[in-house]
Design brief:
Layout: E1 9-12, H1 18-29, E2 33-37, H2 41-53, E3 57-61, H3 68-82, E4 87-89, H4 105-135, E5 142-147, H5 150-154, H6 160-180, E6 185-193, H7 203-208, H8 226-233, E7 244-248, E8 251-254, H9 272-285
Helix pairs in contact: 1-2, 1-8, 3-4, 4-6
Length: about 300
């Protein structure tokens, strides 16, 4: 198949449904060969069958993204099945929502395992492959695409575990971009907003994100997010790295990161009693952060 990702091989985690499924179909439509990773092999198989019915190439992968060795099998499968690997799209995720005062250690650990460690495992295995290619003198045009969230960029009441993990993913993306460019690898992240099983678990959100019944633009459709990721996975995006994109409906934007202000320099050690006035002055001059979701 032709397209901007023709013959590029991509691993997409959590691709059996929701955003992951939309991404898999969009990549395949642009010529990519897709490893469809999901904990539910039946769902993954349905996505593969849909891709193949349209003339594309895909394969099911059941690797546990929270396990390093198992994640390595996904990379090996991509290479053995399709002859290489060009893109890792870390999409898989879960929710364990709870107010911080009531959150259990288990709920914290499960989110960190799937989101933060899950982003590390397959990416790390892929980077070993790409770095070896680069050191052998081969041209590498590889892509890591991570999935963060507005919750990670500005916080979300009742989701401190999820917000912390997604914030970690944003910072991880910046580090990957800074460290891996020498090997021909870019790293970017997406903070998507779309109708998925996770976002519609709350009745209010399900109502707000319901598909239109009048045939108008389906603003919250998962497929609206995918074109940006397909482009980021292509060779056309080689000049873009270390960016955190936001996408919803027909809107694409870049999230501006933390920035140091000019500050106040006493040129000497501060006394505790002097701090209050300095902090008041700093706050008066700052650009306020976006409000935490739910406040």
């Amino acid at each position: 198949m032709s397209g901007i990702c023709a013959d590029r091989v991509v691993i997409i985690t959590g691709a059996g449904g929701g955003l992951g499924r939309a991404h898999a179909l969009a990549f395949a439509a642009e010529g990519a060969k897709v490893i469809v990773n999901d904990i539910n092999p039946e769902s993954a198989g349905e996505v593969v069958a849909e891709i193949e019915s349209k003339g594309g190439e895909a394969a099911v992968n059941r690797s546990d993204i929270t396990d390093y060795a198992s994640s390595g099998e996904a990379v090996k499968q991509a290479i053995d099945t399709f002859g290489g690997l060009h893109v890792v799209l870390n999409n898989a995720g879960i929710n364990r929502d709870r107010m911080f005062a009531s959150m259990s250690e288990k709920e914290w650990d499960e989110i960190m395992a799937v989101h933060l460690k899950g982003h590390f495992c397959i990416s790390s295995n892929a980077v070993q492959y790409w770095r070896n290619q680069s050191k052998a003198g081969e041209k590498v045009s590889a892509r890591i695409i991570n999935t963060t969230s507005g919750a990670g960029l500005q916080g979300s009441v009742g989701q401190s575990n999820y917000a912390a993990a997604k914030a970690g993913i944003a910072a991880l993306t910046l580090n990957q971009a800074a460290e891996l460019g020498r090997y021909g690898i870019t790293a970017n992240a997406i903070a998507p907003a779309a109708r998925t099983g996770m976002t519609t678990a709350v009745e209010e959100m399900a109502t707000r994100m319901a598909p239109p019944t009048d045939g108008s633009f389906d603003y919250w459709a998962p497929g609206n997010v995918s074109p940006l990721l397909v482009w980021l996975g292509s060779e056309q995006s080689s000049h873009v790295t270390g960016r955190i994109f936001e996408a919803e409906g027909g809107k694409i934007s870049i999230a501006d990161g933390w920035r140091s202000t000019s500050g106040i320099d006493k040129n000497d050690k501060w006394e505790p009693a002097e701090i209050a006035g300095a902090v008041d002055d700093l706050i008066a001059k700052e650009t306020p952060a976006q409000k935490v979701y739910g406040t």
